[in-house]
Write a structure and sequence with these properties.
The complex is a heterodimer of chains A (842) and B (232). With 842 residues, chain A is of the alpha+beta class. Chain A contains 26 helices and 21 strands. Chain B has one domain: P-loop containing nucleotide triphosphate hydrolases (Rossmann fold, 3-Layer(aba) Sandwich). In chain B, helix 3 packs parallel to helix 5 and helix 5 packs parallel to helix 6. The chains are: A alpha+beta (842), B alpha/beta (232). Chain B: GO terms for molecular function: ATP binding.
Amino acid sequence: MSLPNAARIARRELRGGLRAFWVFLACLALGVAAIAAVGTVREGIEGGLDREGAALLGGDAELSFTYRFANAEEIGWMLERAGALSEVVDFRSMAVTGEGEAARRALTQVKGVDDAYPLYGEVRLQGGQPLGDALAGRGARPGAVMAPVLAARLGLETGDTFRLGTGNFVLAGLIEAEPDDAGDGFGLGPRTLVRRIDLQGTGLLEPGTLFDSKYRMTLPPDTDLEALEAAARARFADEGLRWRDRRNGAPGIAEFVEQMSAFLVLVGMAGLAVGGIGVSSAVNAYLDRKTEVIATLKSLGADGRTIFLAYFMQIGALALIGIGMGLAIGAAAPLLAAPLLEDRLPIPADFGLYPQPLAEAALYGALAAALFTLWPLSRAEAVRPAALFRGSVERRSLPRARYLVATLALAGALVGSAAILSPEPILALYAALGVAGSLALLALAAAGTRIVARRLTRSRLLRGRTTLRLAAGSVGGPGGETAAVILSLGLGLSVLSAVGQVDHNLRSAIETELPDVAPAFFVLDIQPSQIDGYLSRVEGDPGVSRVDTAPMLRGVISQINGRPASEVADHWVLSGDRGVTYSEAPPARTTLTSGTWWPEGYDGPPQVSFAAEEGAEMGLALGDAITVNILGREITAEITSFREVDFSSAGIGFIMSMNPAALEGYPHSWISTVYAEPDAEAALLRDISGAYPNITAIGVRDAIARVSEVLGSVVAAITSGAGATLLTGIVVLIGAAAAGVRARIFEAAVLRTVGAVRGQVLTYLALRSALLGAAAGLVALLAGTISAWAVMTFVLDADFSIAAGPALAIVFGGALASLLAGLAFAWRPLSVRPAGVLRARE
Amino acid sequence: MPDPVLSLDTVRLSLRSNAGEVEILRGLSAHAERGETLGLIGPSGSGKSSLLMIMGGLERATSGRVHALGQDLTAMNEDALARFRRAHMGIVFQSFHLIPTMTALENVATPLELAGHKDAFGRAAEELDAVGLDKRKDHYPAQMSGGEQQRVALARAAAPRPDILLADEPTGNLDGATGEAIMDLLFGLRDRHGATLVLVTHAPELTRRCDRVIRLEDGRIAGEGATAEAAE
């Protein structure tokens, strides 16, 4: 029976302590810790969102409408069921202060509230003033409170007045916290809060103006929200209502957190793969040292199975310790960082111990440890007693079939569990393929690097450059850490390189290229009565090169060919309300890809021209019937043409354009884009806002800055994840350098024996490390660039160009990291006496 | 008497170990003449290899003076010693001590390159030819037998045409026939380059090929003579 024997051998072998296994433990612990920490933070945020669902939503349930307020019947239905009801209106507008040339304007997201607001939580103002008092205003002038950043932008102080539309408000306070802010989602402008009643007569809520009305209800605790939602949808099926409730108070944030954490867990798994290389190298190095022990045990009668089990148990015990350390760090880090995180997060979070993410991280850790140690362990079984005399391990090119099968099964289990446990299974599969592909590419690159290094040592180029030849020879020679360093550091740098290249390309597209093709600003909510005056002002301006205008309504696609749209396709076009326009003839620069535009004056059954790319993605064809709910009424139109719509240049782009008669009688406003010289922008904005206070003009530069800011935060989070991967890579690098110290000491001793001075030995060691790191950096650049190109081309559908700065930084960073790790371990080879080293080897 | 190529004057060597300080050489004086073959014999632990290491500047004497080719090795720093070795010495070890990441040719070329030799690889190839390894130039040490590795080590030691060849039990890890072939090569190299050879050995047949033999015991010279028997 080999098991008890194996257990005894394993126990005796481990008596030497864990010092020799620090790389193994650190690699595994780091990978597990990263995944556990991301999962714990995710659970904490989701827990917070869950607990504060009602406050984030502003009620237990919310019905909302676009373009209109609820009618009496709808309000009656809500009042029947609600303990309390609060009406809120939300829209974008311009806050203006000062007059004429001295006027200052800023985009703001206005929320008009009633006395019941907020049903849950409380709006905290700086100075502790109650919201009701602040909104009551001063004298005849209504009050408003706003985000401090907006007040600063407008140069306003408490007590100053400003305008929204044609209404004057007094700034009565600055918002410190707004309970339902996160639930309202992403806004381009900071918040202004006023009483809904004070917006009357400001011209901001005219028919056709884009606004959302929201009705929040408090409900008895035992209310069946699901049943109530179904009842509301059934009752008001055709009226374009949207439903949300406390079960998911901030769906946008919840979805963002889920996607972000799914992505970060995948980055963490890349880290685990890097750690796996370190684990594998550490086990290889350990077994190399144990060759004589294994050969001796075999010569004493231990069979291969006993040997395999003995070392499997040792590695298993170490893996448990590593995973335990990783779980402890991963669980403790968010708890320790909780005070800092809670302050910085705009949403509530309940940081604590969550078993599920820890179990998930432990599972990944165990599978990765088994996957990466199986091949090295299979070598233990293959050691023959003759190794005692020959001093070499018999290396098979491939392990036995049973180990290959087990390896494939473990890889499948790892990828499978990542796909099952991730909320983004397809992304998980692609990421797993990406990591596997990168590892394969890196393994090939490692082999290629060795071949190139070998060639270099023989090349005449390096004759006379002794230290460089020695370094190239060492990189290309047998044994050594070339493969481990290129795989681990390379994979870590690949992730960082891909993130850097995608970030650069996105920023370049948004910040540099977009302003060249995008309009200077969007103008929203132009009333039909204002459009002629507006056009004469902007078109007559010599600084304006182009003005596009279009009527705009918003509607939800509710049915396709008579079936609920959500059953027909899962597409972003169907996920909310979309802009709809109408036009007698195809607008300038319109390209029809199929079908024909309706004839002029057409007033038959409604027809629609649909965006070609999105239509194809949704599987639409000419002749299909699209039902759109606009202002609670349903219009069913036949698709009679598809046309190209380019959203990339930030111009006017509508998914749907209908024949004018189809939308006759629907109140609507106009949207416009103005392409103007930067010098002309300020005067234009001033004149338009002055003449039409209800109009909202959004400067594209401001919007780009806001989007860049959000992008910056996302990139920072992903870079941190990639940094964790790189950190693991650096641990492997340091481990490899530490494991190579004995070999370096010996080389240094021999070199000094044959006449090398210390400077030459140091140069050799430095060049060797730098060459290895630069090779890893180059390979990472290649792998990262290919990944970034794939993301930009296939996921983001955007152009790609290599960013030289980040690219050079990756190669230079790789060389530097490796150089520093190498030099950190150079002092011993430099300081030992050759005699002692060589004598010890005799 | 001509100037000795190597001379040691009252050399002591103490090394620290876990058990405290151990005296390896206890005030030993010796010399070797130009072109002479000097054998060092004695039981294990008598200090033969340590004496050889001190002659090669690989180990520093705790006290006493060591001169080689008229230069005081004990006054040189580590780098000066390395430069001296590359210019004047070749050393062969029992365990060969080839660099495993280098081919045979590269191992042999390395001291020549370090010495700034213009055609290091050409000379290295000649030396490998001379030891019968012209077909194994591109092999790594792990791909060669012990005898072949020792021949590479011999070629490496001889390549810079050293004035002094130091060999520490060069046949200790080899079988009889291979060892004999290696010794033939070693003595052949000495003859070809006219070098002084200092040889640590246990093999009686080798001592018979030496001009003079010094027997060490417990860190002291216990005898000296033209043969091993005479040194007893």
